[in-house]
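Bug report (template v2)

What were you trying to do?
Predict the complex of my protein with iron/sulfur cluster.

What happened?
Run completed; filing so the output is reviewed.

Input:
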Amino acid sequence: MNLAFHEYRVKKIVNVYKHVDGWFWNKYSAHPYIGCRSGCEFCYLRGTRNLGKRDPETFDTLIQVKTNAVELLRKELGRLQPDVINAGDWQQPAEEKYRLSRAMLEVVHEFKFPLLVIERSPFLLRDLDLLDAINKQTWVGVLLSFSNVDEKLKRAFEPHSPGIQRRLQIMAQLAQKNIRVGASLMPILPIVGDDEPCIDETIRAVKDHGGTFVAASGLTLDGVQAQHTLAAVETYDASAIGLMVRELCAKHAISDRMPRYCGAGALALNKCIAEQLHRQVYELELARASTPRLWAYRQAAWYVDETNENIAAIFETQGEAGLRALPGIGPRIAAEIAGWLSTSTRK
Ligand code: SF4
């Protein structure tokens, strides 16, 4: 298959998210390329939000290269509060030529930002020295992506992506460097890839290669990308899959959630409380709780994460009543926060 590169300059490289999500915890992302040679059929990046007006069928044959990604990253990180950034793209043959991801890691290291990497490519190991340095300086979390470890499914759904065994070897090498590493099982493929033995084998392989967590969910469908996925997706039961993954993770003694980087400083404990509240959101999703209940926890998580008020200090001086007076924190959530703070070792 022919591959073309289109070089261009962009005005901005860092995406700043309004809220962190409860899966990957990154506040920022910055990617030097658009399009991907791996051409996974389920990839949500085929959608118009990523490709704009470009023909989605060129997703895996035309790679747009943001040639000024590194200089922009240096400029923009200098103005931002350090928090987890998802930066780089190693699954691009373009990286061998342009080396933008490597240069971006150097900037992340220079500005002392913690780093999230979600990858399929062994090319990541080229930069193991920098990942190690960032990890020692702040924090690195790596997720190797799999839809599962079945080679036949891989060939059908990820025609050009790196091999599964190779990905597992990367995981082992990262774990040896004490970098926290796990697997992104996103998406678990409905019907063909969601049976228990298949997921069990995947989680066991993650555990055997030094992974300590998995993040698993179903498909995200967006515009044309939906045409590349299964029509039977409506029968997919996300909550049942989540519960199955949880049970299998418990069996293999790993977590079904990625740990969060909470950092240091006065508001670090706020981030840990927000992590607990986001975990609660996931529990409620698994339990198929009502939407208002779910949103109450989600909004409380966002408030705690983003406020400049020190939640622990409020609890210390005003008790649970002080927590209840905060926007969006009702008696039930206040009691839970009080419980976590009373038992927290991070004070
Ligand atoms: S490797 Fe990742 S970015 Fe590339 S097509 Fe597959 S899912 Fe999309």
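What did the reviewer find?
The CA atoms of residues 37 and 60 lie 4 Å apart. The two ends are 56 Å apart (CA to CA).
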